[in-house]
């Protein structure tokens, strides 16, 4: 199999070097960028399979880099940032990132997430057999083979993780899924610090579905248990 290439964009050289060391041990090729402009140039000039981005970078910040990447690629993007509030995490995911880790971080956890995102991305890229049922509820239509979603006829842009969460919940209406179950199903990894990750993705998903302002929510929170699709 062809070696995969990871972009690491961080203006702190020590952090970029540490990530590069662990990624290379895992068998990945690495391209490093010291600012946002270099990161955009790298993904334009090279075939990159996944990007790890800091947010606070010179020239272009991480949000701007994500917007540039999303214009032509659905590659997995992981934010690795010192910004730790839930609002920061939500902002990162809304911009189009697939995951968000805070500094200081465990390099082995980062590698585990890189592996999981790439594994799922490769699976998504494989041809799929047609015939999976289209799911409809409350103005939302989910087309699993195309991995697209419309809301009252208008296509809405979901990240791969948001789509996977929505499709899982909508496939089993009324069934309550714990955050642990959702994380293990969607991320394909052991349950680590994931309750907050799932919560943030659910929050951004609701906003895109305009579910945060609906009285009868499509995605229902069952306090102390998890989430269900109310379709």
| Fold-level CATH name of the largest domain | Rossmann fold
Domain count: the total is 2
| Uncertain spans | none
How many alpha or pi helices?
Answer: 8
Distance between the termini: 42 Å
Give the SSE string. Answer: EHEHEHEHEHEEEEHHHEE
Shape: globular
Kindly describe this structure:
One of its GO terms (cellular component) is protein-DNA complex. GO terms for molecular function: phosphorelay response regulator activity; transcription cis-regulatory region binding. Its main location: cytoplasm. InterPro entries: OmpR/PhoB-type_DNA-bd, Sig_transdc_resp-reg_receiver, WalR-like. Keywords: DNA-binding, Phosphoprotein, Transcription, Transcription regulation, Two-component regulatory system. The chain has 231 residues and is α/β, with parallel strands linked by helices. The protein has 2 domains: 121 residues, Response regulator (Rossmann fold); 95 residues, Orthogonal Bundle (Arc Repressor Mutant, subunit A), CATH 1.10.10. The chain is 42% helix and 19% strand. The protein is built from 8 helices and 11 strands. It has a 5-stranded parallel sheet, sandwiched between helices. Helix 3 links the parallel strand 3 and strand 4. Helix 2 runs parallel beside helix 3 and helix 6 packs across helix 8. The radius of gyration is 18 Å and the shape is globular. The mean pLDDT is 87.
